[in-house]
Design goal:
- There is one protein chain.
- The protein is rod-shaped and about 90 Å long.
- It is built from three helices and three strands; from the N terminus they run αααβββ.
- It has one domain.
- It is α+β, with helices and mostly antiparallel strands.
- It has a three-stranded antiparallel sheet with strand order 1-2-3, covered by helices on one side.
């Protein structure tokens, strides 16, 4: 029979217990940092797509006859294919003031990694806007 004093001196499972205590806090923290990084990368990429689309629509480039399709194609290349559709892209030409008008592009889409990673950012909707001047 093992005595209580002998059990107290044994240290065989101490590392396992310490890992279990630290992992409960460390793993969710690492996942949250990873999730926040993906969110910021996605938002930055969508902002770049909105800026390029606003420029494309404002200068009426021959490379993009349809600005919404250009935005969908660019988002598929820069972020993840299929997260932006034509319905997510809004083009709003501005009123002409002092010989300049602004083309506004707004992209609204759900956060794509929210389907994979756990809360708190899984139900986030991303909204980006960009403006580009065009001649009246």
């Amino acid at each position: 029979m093992i005595c209580f004093g002998t059990l107290r001196r044994r240290r065989g499972g101490a590392t396992t217990v310490e890992f279990a205590l630290v992992a409960v806090i460390f793993l969710p923290l690492c996942l949250a940092i990873f999730d926040a990084g993906l969110l910021l990368w996605t938002k930055g990429s969508l902002q770049s797509v909105a800026s390029l689309t606003a420029r494309c629509a404002a200068i009426s480039s021959a490379n993009c006859p349809n600005a919404q399709t250009f935005a969908v194609t660019s988002a598929g290349t820069w972020v993840v294919p299929g997260i932006v559709s034509n319905a997510n892209v809004t083009l709003t030409p501005g009123a002409c003031t002092s010989h300049v008008s602004l083309m506004q592009v707004t992209i609204v889409c759900p956060y794509w990694a929210g389907l994979v990673l756990p809360p708190p950012l899984n139900a986030k909707t991303l909204t980006v806007s960009a403006y580009f001047p065009s001649a009246c």
